[in-house]
Specification:
This protein is of the alpha/beta class and 254 residues long. The chain is built from eight helices and seven strands. Helix 2 links the parallel strand 2 and strand 3. The protein starts with 5 loop residues before the first strand and ends in a 6-residue tail after the last strand.
Length: 254
């Protein structure tokens, strides 16, 4: 990581947890390349907020479940980096993009399963693989999992299974990328008040109260509870943290 400018590539950075991650990273002096799926206006707003914090930022549209888009996307990113910084590489990859699925196991369709697989496992696996030539030695990879990989709530079998796979994948990344001094870790949020999954945790008071009741710290999570942990993992202080799963849930289901 010789470059003076530290740069993070963050997927799903236009809203919710990703938005907060981008802002916290910027506050650590890190420039941002973020992806958004469809909401360019929200992505542009995050770019402006990052710039207000004195860092450079850019947003590119990407459907992270479609592996055919990855080669042209990385070409776009490397061209931007070369033009902006004089070299086509970056330091931190944060695989955050994702969607929710709430469906009982008995009723989960193959189509729903494939959608979860493409977004949360296949997409992350190959998006990370294709990032390797551009990722600086000594960099970091942070994969976003979920408390649902540790505890089980009815209706999240497909989603939780993919997140469990991501946690195993992250340990393999740490092992195989160790010679390049690239650390790989997992951040696993608990239930958080965002528009994720249609805003279920945020907007359903009964569900919100229920989650708070079995969380040791007595409330549901907020986006600002998560972003700072991701940003910390990109700092020099976190250099010796590797192959770890860090759950950020306030102590859910202990």
């Amino acid at each position: 990581m010789e470059s003076v400018h530290k740069i993070a590539l963050l997927t799903g950075g236009s809203r919710g947890l990703g938005r907060n991650m981008a802002l916290r990273l910027a506050e650590k002096g890190i420039d941002i390349v973020l992806t958004y799926n469809s909401n360019q206006e929200a992505a542009d707003e995050v770019v402006a907020e990052v710039q207000k914090r004195g860092q450079q930022a850019v947003a590119f549209q990407l459907n992270t479940s479609d592996t055919k888009l990855f080669d042209p996307f990385y070409q776009q990113v490397s061209t931007y980096l070369q033009d902006t910084y004089g070299k086509p590489t970056f330091d931190f990859l944060i695989n955050n993009a994702g969607t929710a699925l709430y469906a009982p196991f008995a009723e989960t369709t193959e189509e729903q399963f494939d959608e979860m697989y493409n977004i949360h496992l296949k997409g992350v696996y190959f998006f990370t693989q294709k990032a390797l030539p551009l990722l600086n030695d000594g960099g970091r990879i942070i994969n976003i999992s979920s408390g649902l990989a540790r505890f089980s709530f009815p209706g999240s079998s497909a989603y939780g299974s993919m997140k469990g796979a991501i946690e195993v994948f992250t340990r393999y990344l740490a092992k195989e990328l160790g010679p390049r001094k690239i650390a790989a870790n997992v951040v696993a949020p608990g239930a958080v008040e965002t528009d994720f999954g249609g805003g279920r945790v945020r907007d359903n008071k009964e569900y919100n109260d229920q989650v708070a009741s079995f969380t040791a710290l007595g409330r549901v999570g907020l986006p600002e509870d998560i972003g700072g942990v991701v940003a910390f993992l990109c700092t020099e202080e976190a250099r010796w943290i590797n192959a770890q799963r860090i759950e950020v849930s306030g102590g859910m289901s202990l």
